[in-house]
Amino acid sequence: MRPAEKDLDLKFFAKAGRGVTFKKGETILRPGEDPTGIYYIKKGLARLYSISASGQEITFNILKPGSYLFMMWALSEIENSYFFEALTELETLKAPKETILEFIKSQPDLLYKLNKRTMIGLEASIATTQTLLLGKADSKIAAIFIMLAKRFGKNGKNNQIVIQAPLTHRLIATLAGLTRETASLEIEKLQKAKIISKKQRFFVVNKIKILESKLEVDPPKSSSLL
Fold first, then answer.
1. Distances, alpha carbon 107 to alpha carbons 98, 103, 113, 119, 183, in Å
2. Which of 110, 163, 188, 201 counts the highest number of beta carbons within 10 A?
3. Cross-strand bridge partners of residue 43
4. What is the pLDDT of residue 217?
5. pLDDT recorded at residue 198
6. CATH 2.60.120.10 assigned to 131-213
């Protein structure tokens, strides 16, 4: 989201909504529950995930500041089938569904930008999903690090990309659809080859081109998921 668009949303939510905070690890919504409003993320990260019948967690998205929670529900009224969790301390602004829908309907440009953003995110999601479905373990981990670098990366020294998100081996495994043990093994291989490294609490991508060469499909052109 561009700064001007983000400022517009923030100003509207600040006027129409109220502040709501969540602690790290707190569940925001469970499958089958109806949201009580639309949330705009001011600060922190949220995770959207599900749990399979065998008990395996699958993370579908990590939402960052400027993202909405439950906009899909507001626009389509589809029943929620996912868990939403505060991945970090989370500061949001919450507004009633009806108020948000009235605002969107009165702002054609905003609706267009929202649809455009959704389509860009969908393209990135499809490209990543191809690798996760068809690729081997090393290709899956490479795809996840590329996606995270584009979504949360900040340029560092010597063309490094610092992924400014609190990533654990377990979380990366749930993004890649792998067991924690397999994900850890592949991450350690990348670290040993100095393709990625760890700087304090953040992962650093040192050689993005080598990661891209490990993909079994072309990397997504867009920079974010939904």
1. 14, 6, 10, 19, 44
2. 163
3. 91
4. 60
5. 93
6. yes
CA-closest candidate to residue 44, choices 25, 31, 72: 25
Contact 138, 107 (CB under 8 A): no
Instruction: Name the CA radius of gyration of the chain, rounded.
Output: 18
- Two tokens at 37? 């409003």
Q: Give CA–CA dist 84/120, Å, rounded.
A: 22
Rounded Cα gap, residues 159 and 169, in angstroms: 24
Tokens 């970090």, residue located: 88
What confidence score (pLDDT) does residue 124 get? 60
Amino acid at 120: I
* pLDDT tens for each residue of 28-77: 999 999 899 999 999 999 999 999 888 899 999 999 998 889 988 888 87
DSSP state of 214: T
Whether the model pTM is above 0.85: no
Which residues have C-beta within 8 Å of that of residue 116, sequence separation ≥ 6? none
Of the CATH numbers 2.30.30.220, 2.130.10.10, 2.60.120.10, 3.40.50.720, which one belongs to the domain with range 3-106? 2.60.120.10
In DSSP notation, 89-119 reads -EEEEEE-HHHHHHHHHT-HHHHHHHHHHHH
What's the rounded Cα separation, in Å, for the pair 1 and 71?
Answer: 15
